[in-house]
Write a structure and sequence with these properties.
This protein is of the alpha+beta class and 151 residues long. The chain has a single domain, classed as Thiol Ester Dehydrase, Chain A, CATH 3.10.129.10. 19% of the residues lie in helices and 34% in strands. A hairpin with a 5-residue loop joins strand 4 and strand 5.
């Protein structure tokens, strides 16, 4: 349930501007583009927020993940040229999977256009399957998010 002060749980957001190719003839964003906005936010969250390069496979400690499940709850439409903030946070970490929460709002506002929960799985290309989340990833998430992450 969305309530006053909910954005206070979030420490990171990515900025997105709605482009012409993302809207219908009424200027409203097609539903599928919200997942693109979430992808932008999650990659920036890891790269800029947590300082983890998810594409660098040359380092000893590598990490990549795949989407397992997404739940989107549409509240209000985004429209052409709206400047959006895609808020992102890790809500929970398990052995091999982690759950991120997203809230999309118009820049300068707090009423959500969309709320989402996405389950990601830590993945190994070599093993062609899921693997435990590396310790260095767990540590960075806990350090960044503080006490808000469920175990």
């Amino acid at each position: 349930m969305w309530g006053k002060g909910m954005l206070e749980k979030f420490k990171f957001h990515a900025d997105v501007e709605v482009r012409w190719a993302e809207v219908d003839t009424m200027g409203i964003v097609f539903n599928s583009h919200y997942l693109t906005y979430i992808d932008i936010a999650v990659s920036d969250y890891f790269r800029k927020g947590l300082e983890i390069d998810i594409l660098d496979t040359t380092e000893k400690d590598t990490f990549t993940f795949v989407l397992a499940k997404s739940t989107l709850e549409f509240k209000q439409p985004a429209k052409l040229f709206d400047r959006l903030q895609v808020w992102c946070r890790t809500r929970a970490m398990r052995n091999k999977r982690f759950i991120l929460e997203f809230v999309i709002v118009k820049e300068g506002e707090t009423s959500p256009l969309l709320q989402a929960e996405v389950v990601y799985v830590s993945y190994s290309k070599e093993k062609n399957g899921s693997v435990p989340i590396p310790d260095f990833v767990r540590e960075r998430i806990k350090k960044f998010e503080g006490e808000h992450v469920e175990g």
